[in-house]
Amino acid sequence: MTVYYRGPAGTVTESHFVTHAPDGSAYDLNDLRNIMRVRRRGPRFAAVLAAAVAVILAGVAVGWLMSDMGSLLVVLVAVVAAVFVLRLASPVYTLRADHRDQPVELYSTRDKVDFERVCRNLERALEDLRPA
Q1: 50 and 81: one domain?
Q2: Which terminus of the chain has a lower count of CB atoms within 10 Å, N or C?
Q3: What are 80-126's pLDDT values in tens digits?
Q4: 22 to each of 11, 17, 32, 113, how far by Cα in Å?
Q5: Are residues 80 and 108 in the same domain?
Q6: How many CA atoms lie within 13 A of 79 on its CB side?
Q7: Domain identity same for 102 and 121
Q8: For 1-132, where are the E strands, in sequence order?
Q9: What pTM does this model have?
Q10: What's 91's DSSP letter?
Q11: Does residue 118 share a domain with residue 99?
């Protein structure tokens, strides 16, 4: 049996996509249709964006009241903190498909690199599954 991928998402073999979800669902590759990659913002995007803006504004306000060198440092720290806060709003990548005419979510993550790895290996498995 050829294993194309084994990782946090599950396992992609020559015939199945097996998830590591609690139920350990196994999807026969022959039964997968309409495979879609979906990228969406995280559920807390608006709140995180508002928090990042608030951090920057607070840094500018405190910097305004301090000396020149102190204000530059405070604004710099505020910008770094805002960037860190915005990282919390990273997008969610989801792999969806129809399995035996039922919509299923095969995999969902915030890790773009691993998501692309899963998609690439699933594509390879599907290509090798087709008759030459």
Answers
A1: yes
A2: C
A3: 777 776 666 678 899 999 999 999 999 988 888 999 999 999 999 99
A4: 14, 15, 21, 23
A5: no
A6: 8
A7: yes
A8: 3-7, 10-13, 16-19, 26-28, 32-40, 92-99, 102-109
A9: 0.66
A10: -
A11: yes
The first and second tokens of residue 104, run together, are: 């299923």
Tokens of 20: 């590591």
Residue 122 is encoded by which pair of tokens?
A: 């699933």
Cβ burial, residue 107 (10 Å; 0-12/13-18/19+)? buried
* Contact present, 88 and 48 (Cβ < 8 Å): yes
Q: What's the total number of domains in the chain?
A: 2
Residue numbers of the domain that contains 114? 3-39+94-129
Q: Which of 116, 115, 95, 91 is nearest to 104 (CA)?
A: 95
Encoding tokens for residue 111?
A: 């890790």
pLDDT at 132 over 60: no
